[in-house]
Amino acid sequence: MTTPVRRHRSPGPMERPLGWARNPLAEFDELINQMGGLLESTVEAAPGAGMAAWTPSADVTETDDAYHVEVELPGVKSKDIDVEVSGQDLVVTGEIKDRERKGVLRRSTRRTGRFEYRVLLPSEVNTEGVKADMSEGVLTITVPKAEVAKPRHVEITERSGD
Which of 52, 81, 128, 153 has the most crowded Cβ, counting Cβ within 10 A? Predict the structure, then answer.
């Protein structure tokens, strides 16, 4: 008596799911970018939508004596940026102007128009000591903490047990 032999076929290229070798997170990021572009183009086409501002990418770090905010603004001139600190609220606003081009623009993914970055800092700050500088398309803002907000090291003294 013979036993049946089971043969396994290796899946051919047509039997693999689409995107088999791709990174699904990269595809998700691309989908989000496309959806954002569609939403922006729809909103910009609406009447009165020219007032909406977009938010640039930024990092906020904290040291013992200050907050450091780095805002990505490639191609923006420092004269087109306004930095304002009021209490614990830091606001960076400005505009990236559309440049005049020759020919027909077929595709554009660069942001233009008004932008606004707003952050509420976690503690009191010294608004008089705020500094901002621009280098290689990154605006760096240093916001010193107020004296009351700085950490203070407390020395421990020892007493005798009398």
Answer: 81
